Amino acid sequence: MYIVSSQRSSDFSSKMSARSMSHLSPVEKKRFPDGELYIRIMDNLQDQDVTVVGNTRSEEDILELLFLLNAVKEQKPKSITAVIPFFGYARQHMVYKSGEAISSKVIIRSISEVAEKIVTVDIHDTASFSFTDRECINFSPVESIARNHRKDSINMVVAPDDGAFEKAKAVAKALGADSMYLEKKRTGPTTVEYEKETMNVKGMNVLVVDDIISTGGTMMKTVEMLKAAGAAKIFVTATHGLFLNGSAEKLRKMCDRLSTTDTIVSDYSTINISMDVMDYMGEKK
Ligand code: R5P
Description:
This protein is α/β, with parallel strands linked by helices. 30% of the residues lie in helices and 26% in strands. It contains 8 helices and 15 strands. Strands 2-1-5-6-7-8 form a 6-stranded parallel sheet, with helices on both faces. Helix 3 links the parallel strand 6 and strand 7 (117-121). Helix 4 (142-148) packs across helix 5 (165-175). It is globular and about 60 Å long. The protein binds ribose-5-phosphate. Residues 160-161, 163-164, 192, 210-218 line the site of ribose-5-phosphate.
């Protein structure tokens, strides 16, 4: 198997390639004088099984991923699988106000033009998969997160909203801990409010688990509430760490340990899941 990677996912792809002993194909990426993107795959991929890896976080990421997929396709490979460690633009998967573009539909359909199989990691909502007839699988890094907290004697795993409760429950099960979720209400782009509720976490080691830390507003508020309720130690983790507005440093100071997986590289992306994704793809064959 060959792996073709976007520039920003190169760490993730190198680890996938080491795990599967597949070849990481070199890619030439440059800009024309007017700024337009140029992509060239350097290997001959004819009749090969090819995995193309890239996030869809920014417009540049999306264009690069689509160029890579299409350049691979031009070479007539045997099969093409797209691995999207962080599937950005997945929030808008329906029309809320008439006239809106459904971003996740646009992206998943563009990828599906080329890839026969799409692998995501904790996509915001698997509803996006309904826009394609390609095989889609979503990996949730429950075991990887639990492994990272095995030695922290966690008593309680907290989901900062009901959407994260399934994951919190699964992580709690893997750690032999209890789980709970909080009733969250979003009050603005960076602010959230919680129902006043009794949290029985006094003296406990608590792990807060979410799919994504974006502005950090959700996690900061949750940590404040856990502190007020007397938690002994507070660990904060999420699959994807966007950490907008310097929120990583602020959060880090508020808790005992902050970590995310390596779908997006940062100082806190210490949970390596690329190898787990590779194993998962093998199991799902
Ligand atoms: C919400 O649905 C998500 O699970 C996260 O809780 C949310 O996106 C985090 O955003 P922020 O870090 O901006 O509060």
